[in-house]
Predict the 3D structure of the following.
Amino acid sequence: MEIIHVSAECYPVAKAGGLGDIVGALPKYQNELGHVAKVVMPMYKTKFLLDNVWDVVHKGRTNIGDYWFDYTIIKEQTNKLGFDLYLVDINGLLDREKVYGYDDDTERFTAFQVAVVDWIAVWAHHPDVIHVHDHHTGLIPFIIKHCYKYQHLHKIPTVLTIHNAQYQGTMGWDRSFLLPPWDSWKWGMLDWKNNINPLASGIKCAWKVTTVSMSYLDELRQSANGLEALFEYERGKCMGILNGIDTEVWDPQKDTYLQEHFSVETVTEGKANSKRRLCETFDLDFNKPLIVFIGRLVGEKGADILPAAISDSYYYIGRKMNFLILGSGFPDVETQLASLQKLAQKDYSVYIGYNESLSHLMYAGADFLLMPSRVEPCGLNQMYAMRYGTIPMVRRTGGLKDTVIDYGEKNGYGIVYNWASVGDITHGIWRAVDLFEDKEKIMEIREKMMRLDFSWQHSVQQYLNLYEGLLPEKEAVPEAESKPDKK
């Protein structure tokens, strides 16, 4: 099969969250199984763009409303990511340093989607499947089905994967002119609550819809930022497929970001070396358990209650643990976390920003990873942590529920709590401090976690099975032609 992935992010080209990690890994493993998976994304001004060599494979011209623009498709020459990577260059719209956060993001990503379809429309052949990711590409199934210029593509199966349904790309109907001329009788396939909703449109128009964990799909029927009824109505074409992690990138035995590598057999010494490096860098006490948070400092991740949870933990439990925070997000959360630094007694530090190298060292050196998420469609951090022998402390939601079992339960290996609240987080921290004293139990849990299989192999096969179910059945060879006449 030939599968085209269309996404706003792809690691290591440009990444703002877990979407980038998934799109950077899934096509690679699909290719390894003998298929042809390709990625198409916007051309941002990133280090990856400048450090690599590109071929121009197509030039086109199209429009969003009255704005006509030229676009260029460039391809990375060496296939260094394990798949063909194509970037869409639209001068003045996409060629910027950040992925998101501009006032004209609606125009940017609409133009990107139109350009992608416009390019595919002139191919000498059609791909077997177009796989789009999140709302930034959610209009593509509608464009293919109902925009007159591209309706010759309507037989190409489309799959939408929802990585986070909280973000939907909603725009007013006054922006409908941005789309190529379309069948106005199909306005309902764009509309949700009197607005154009790209994510809702993708759910309605895609042949199949997937979410990144089974539990997240169940939760979306009750909590989907206004799309609950739509998920209930379309439940027949939806399925949950748990994300995997790239075990070649996230491997403590050969992680290029680590100075000291380790395996299951050498995990105690290996983690101690990385922890010592972190404690020296951030002035922490090596002998205390190291609890880390890595991620966006936003309400979704429960980051807004971290300052209170940390303060309460020091008050009720005592200064028996270290905290190290890595992330950026809401300015007030950043300020509150930074203000705790002045109260530190060699047991707290925070790094505001994004640092890939530091994140790898933290997974390797931490004793516990804190994830008090309110919403976690799949979650990759807990899988990274377990791969490095770091015990996850998670709220029972979404993919966290599907991947972490409390160590107090049969075959358990993590710390799990029910609510994103200061009380539940503090109680989880108390359990972590208590567990840290039981070195034999810690070793048992680490070995169990590191042997768990969170690789892409199983998930990739589920996607391939999904695609195959959308393709037309091959015509059977008539029996008279396939077997010799016995007479």
Notes: The CA atoms of residues 12 and 248 lie 14 Å apart. The longest helix spans residues 105-120. The longest strand covers residues 54-64. The radius of gyration is 24 Å.
